[in-house]
Specification:
Distance between the termini: 77 Å
Order of helices and strands: HHHHHHEEHHHHHHHHHHHEHHEHEE
Largest sheet: 4 strands, mixed
Helix content: 55-70%
Number of strands: 6
Strand content: under 5%
Strand order of the largest sheet: 3-4-6-5
Structural class: mainly alpha
């Protein structure tokens, strides 16, 4: 057996181990896992509803309204095809993307560390921050996995690997493979644009220093690599453009995904730059106070990396500016889960710690004693340690009542409402969640919304009145047989001839419900929605 075959087999074993490890982590750390009764996170259910609609002929943005990228809905649509009323398919997709993140973390580490097993251990440390329960991946009973940021981190890791690989190639043929590297990065740019376009800033930071250098020093390489980069972007985006043209939804895509998100990113009566500056301040505060240990690891790693490889100024600039612009990207709307992509930079911290330990002589002395015992023991200890830290100790989902092992004997309220609706005749199988985030009734019932505005995004009336007016009109026109509300409707005098505004919309909705629907049940919320009452109305 030649050396190349041995290396190839070792690589396959390592990748297989990382895939299994990633699946094990996701089994404990995401609500999509079979370990948990239900994924009741609002955002994940909205994405699932969009993906389900897409797989059944509804066109995103035109027929169903949500404001994330179309690739996210395609991923959720594939998950729906695997499990039509649950999240097992999404669990598999999340596991695939976590596997990609860890494999490419390993590949980056291997560029700097000769030892396979030590590079493996370093890659296993990265998910600690990614899956953190410190208001990042889980926030008490909220969140719980499946955000676009979780998929984006894999794409950023792949791109970072190709850039570092470019600089680690032999100087004599450094630009030999730049074309295929840039084509691959172009694909990642296109995919990120179709997931959550603000993270394009990562690629601006990553690539602009390199392309400025190439423009000045190697104009032919610049032109060739730029063309292949653009070819990669087009290859990723073109299928959706064709789909949008066929379905006549390009204008809806621009209005919702681009224009609405610019509205969504700011506060009313403030301009975008002010909102961004305010968001950046909040981001810095959050990173330093909520994720202090991770911040120390990241900053230390980046500083160590820049100092140790100070002779390679161009790579340093590329890595540093990609991090800086990623921080700006997450400042647009700094919910906890948007910090997930910066966890990739913790890799540099772990590599720095490894280098310092190696230089100290501890590593060498241990090898001299018994290398094989050390090698096997360190993997076993670190595996158990990281599983504990990243799941029970750090993530915290396992301690929630939603877990099947220690569950309270409660049926999720979504299933209770779904059963009531589905017990009716088929022509009455339609429901609208009124003035609330998507709490999962559409998922549990398997129904595709009849209303474009099937839920209320996290916006106020003054930011985007279309959602409120759309739901109000559907209630007046009795478009859906059932309504689910978090408030008991009551009649308010003197509003019949008054236009809806930010002060009276709730009273207007109450009047419309009372006039067209009757209350059939009140269901107590469960788990994430605990202590919330859900009122089920049926069309008169």
């Amino acid at each position: 057996m030649n050396q190349d075959t041995v290396i190839r087999k070792k690589r396959i074993y390592l990748y297989t181990f990382l895939i299994g490890y990633a699946c094990l982590l996701m089994f404990f750390c995401t609500k999509s896992s079979p370990l948990y009764i239900i994924n009741d996170w609002y955002d994940a259910n909205a994405y699932f509803t969009m993906g389900k609609g897409m797989m059944n002929g509804a066109v995103p943005y035109r027929d169903l309204f949500d404001h994330k990228g179309p690739l996210l809905y395609l991923l959720y649509g594939i998950g729906y095809l695997i499990d039509s009323t649950g999240f097992f398919g999404i669990f598999l997709i999340q596991s695939i993307f976590m596997s990609l993140t860890m494999i490419f973390c390993y590949k980056i580490a291997k560029l700097y560390i000769d030892n396979y097993f030590h590079a493996l251990i370093i890659s296993m440390l990265v998910p600690i921050m990614t899956l953190s329960g410190n208001n990042l991946y889980v926030d008490d009973a909220n969140y719980g996995g499946g955000s676009p940021d979780e998929f984006i981190i894999a794409l950023l890791t792949i791109s970072l690997y190709f850039i570092i690989k470019l600089f680690k190639d032999n100087k004599s043929n450094q630009y030999k493979h730049i074309g295929k590297y840039m084509f691959a990065i172009g694909l990642m740019i296109g995919f990120v644009f179709l997931l959550k376009f603000n993270f394009i800033l990562f690629f601006v930071g990553l690539l602009v220093p390199i392309y400025i250098y190439l423009l000045v020093k190697h104009i032919k390489v610049f032109a060739k690599s730029l063309l292949l980069l653009l070819a990669g972007v087009i290859s990723a985006v073109l299928p959706y453009i064709i789909y949008a043209l066929i379905t006549n939804s390009i204008k809806d895509f621009v209005k919702v995904y681009l224009k609405f998100n610019l509205t969504y990113s700011g506060e009313p009566d403030t301009n975008f730059l002010y909102s961004l500056a305010s968001g950046l301040k909040n981001t810095v505060d959050t990173v330093f106070y909520s994720y202090f240990i991770f911040t120390v690891i990241i900053v230390f790693g980046l500083l160590y990396f820049i100092y140790k490889y100070r002779s390679n100024l161009l790579l340093n600039m590329s890595v540093f500016f990609s991090f800086l612009l990623t921080m700006i990207a997450i400042s647009v709307k700094p919910f906890g889960y948007v910090y997930i992509p910066i966890s990739i930079y913790s890799l540099f911290g772990y590599m720095a710690i490894y280098n310092l330990v190696t230089k100290s002589g501890i590593h060498k002395s241990e090898q001299q004693k018994n290398y094989k015992f050390y090698q096997n023991t360190i993997i076993s200890v670190f595996t158990v340690f990281i599983i504990f830290i990243a799941t029970i100790g750090n993530n915290g989902l396992i301690s929630q009542h939603i877990n099947r092992v220690t569950r309270i004997n409660t049926i999720p309220f979504q299933q209770t409402i779904a059963d009531i609706i589905l017990s009716d005749t088929p022509e009455n199988h339609s429901v609208l969640e009124v003035l609330t985030l998507d709490c999962g009734v559409y998922t549990a019932s398997g129904l595709i919304p009849q209303s474009r505005y099937f839920y209320l995004p996290n916006v106020g009336y003054e930011q985007y009145p279309d959602v409120f007016l759309g739901q109000y009109n559907d209630i007046i026109n009795k478009k859906n047989t059932y309504l689910v509300c978090t408030f008991a409707a009551s009649y308010h005098e003197g509003l019949d001839d008054v236009l809806m505004d930010k002060d009276n919309y709730l009273d207007k909705f109450s009047n419309a419900i009372i006039e067209n629907y009757s209350l059939v049940n009140v269901v107590e919320g469960t788990y994430l929605q605990d202590n919330i009452k859900y009122y089920l109305y049926k069309r008169i």
